[in-house]
Structure formats: structure tokens, C-alpha cells
């Protein structure tokens, strides 16, 4: 199989970008009933237009809308489905207390906030993203529309958060396979709507997959008497769920998955652990084209698991942190890319130069997975994006 490229590009970012103070203020006013929907949308569209121009200036071909219409990175997919309902104050007992993000909230003395629950048969009844994509597409030349990147929620997001027996009603779905089958069909329908609108580049955001690298979570899973499946069996079901979601996608629809260990308000992460224990199934069995991998700190482990990456897949190395403004040393980051290439080369019996053809660079995560954003300001974000572009220009001169 030939390597699927452009997308991904040599330089990428992970979708979410810092919002302006004006946008944050009008969102808050809207929620308090002090601003209209029209006023909110006007500011969103103005800021999206500006941030697309910024991405063009910085030479990032896979431009996003900064996720400016979202409150959190996972957006509105699940609430937009028939069979799911938002609950403002869910019972904390329904959440897995050892799921890393839930555990972090509980340790800080907070209870999990509003959530989305399956209450009936799941059905796709219209895309909540397609109009946002169409507006984004209107801001670039027709030949650039195929490069635009849209981020989607992980299909397993609301399954992992809830303890066994709480993800779906037993009188609606007899077992998890039935539940996952309808989720997969909903994603198939969503991807078709987006494809028909011109979208050719999607990135799933999935911290859940890397939670299976966390010894703390795995221990909690083992000790939970409600679980009927082991953590490894659940991970395998998640791989199958993804593959079912993507079973009907056209060949020219680029699909990537971003894995990180949390990116909450104030640059908080949730979990730790290298990719080692999930690498074989993640890289060899998950039917995606590209992996956007967190690699900015030791909590992500070493590059050894990249030996499992097949020849036809791409990896975007998140070696530059998006969490803090301090700039990394460019030469050190370039060396990390070469170090990663050595393991891909070793795993495939190819040269380092050939392995480099499978790689690109990015920040480790988005800059504002939650709308309030990370502990970095706009100038700091731009400098980070410039650094990533400079790393890519040095390693792959003349390439997008």
C-alpha cells in the first residue's frame, strides 16, 4: 500500500486554537440570555475568518475553524443524535471513578459536570457539523477545501466514562455489541454527510485509547466488580468500533486519530503511560491513515512502540507542547523526530530516510480543548506554531 499523504502534512496542529476575549465574552453573555444567537454567530464567523487567515500566513494547509463553535473538543455529535440526552447534574455514581479525567475531578473535590446519556435507540438525524464545515470551506480556495480538517468526538467517549450498566438502557440494547453497532451506523451517516459537503480530512480526538496505558486506570478497572469485560477486551471492542465506523468511507477520505493524556483548563493533563501496551493493536489493527501522537513529555513514554507502525501509515509527532509558553529548542526537537524515525525504520526494515517520509510534526495537543484554553496567550500560541513550522521546514524543506 502506498503512503497516504497530503493530508496529513509535514506540519499540523490539532484543531483547537485559542479564542479571542470577545468571543469568550459573547459566549458567556449568550448563556446568560444577554446576547442573541445572531450576535454569537456573527462573532464566531468573524473570528473563524481571522484564524483561517492566520493559519494561511503560518503555512498550515490543514486549517480548522479553531473549534470556535464548540464548548469542549468533542463538540455536539452525541447530543445531536436521536437516543441521547444531555443531563445537567448526573449522579456521580454512574461514572468510572478510575477513568483518568473523572479521577482528576474527584481528587480536586469536584463532581463530573453535565454529560450525555443514551436513553433510546440511537439514530443519526442530521449533522451538527456540516454547516460549520461549509462556512470554513467558503473561506479558502476551492482547491484547498480537501485539505481542511474537521475534528470529531471518539465513538467510545461516553462508553468509557460510565460504569458497566450505565452506558445504555438494558431494555433498549441487550448488549454492548448492539449499542456499538448503532453508534457505528451513526458515524457512517455523519461521515457521508461531511464527505458529500466536500470534507476529505477528519481527525478523531481520543484520550480514551491512551487511558489503557495508565497503570492507575487499569488497576481501578480490575478492582471494579461491575466490569464484565477486562480492560484489554474493552480496548479490542473499541478498535472494532472504530473500524465499523469507518467501514463505508471512500478511499480518498483521510482519517486520523489523535491520542493524548488530557488537555483541560489551565493546561491540566489526566493520565500517564507510554504507548507500549497498546501499540500492536493500535498501529496494526486500527484502520486509520494517520496517528497524531502526544510526545512532548516523558509521560508519553519513548519512541520504541513506533516499531509497530506499518509502512503505509503516517505519524504526526506532537513534540512541541501546547500547554505552556516556554519554547522548545528547535535542534533538540529535530533530533527527536530523527530518533522516532529510527524505530519506524527498524520495525519495517527500511532506511531512516524512508521512515521520515511517514512522519510530520505538530503541537502535542490543541491550544483550547476547553473553550477557556491552556496556560498560554495568543502570542505564545503563534510562536509555538511558528516553531513547529520551522522544524518541518528544516527536516522536509519545500514540503507542506
From TrEMBL:
<dbReference type="GO" id="GO:0009086">
    <property type="term" value="P:methionine biosynthetic process"/>
</dbReference>
<dbReference type="GO" id="GO:0003871">
    <property type="term" value="F:5-methyltetrahydropteroyltriglutamate-homocysteine S-methyltransferase activity"/>
</dbReference>
<dbReference type="InterPro" id="IPR038071">
    <property type="entry name" value="UROD/MetE-like_sf"/>
</dbReference>
<dbReference type="Pfam" id="PF01717">
    <property type="entry name" value="Meth_synt_2"/>
</dbReference>
<dbReference type="GO" id="GO:0008270">
    <property type="term" value="F:zinc ion binding"/>
</dbReference>
<protein>
    <recommendedName>
        <fullName>Cobalamin-independent methionine synthase MetE C-terminal/archaeal domain-containing protein</fullName>
    </recommendedName>
</protein>
<dbReference type="InterPro" id="IPR002629">
    <property type="entry name" value="Met_Synth_C/arc"/>
</dbReference>
<feature type="domain" description="Cobalamin-independent methionine synthase MetE C-terminal/archaeal">
    <location>
        <begin position="177"/>
        <end position="376"/>
    </location>
</feature>
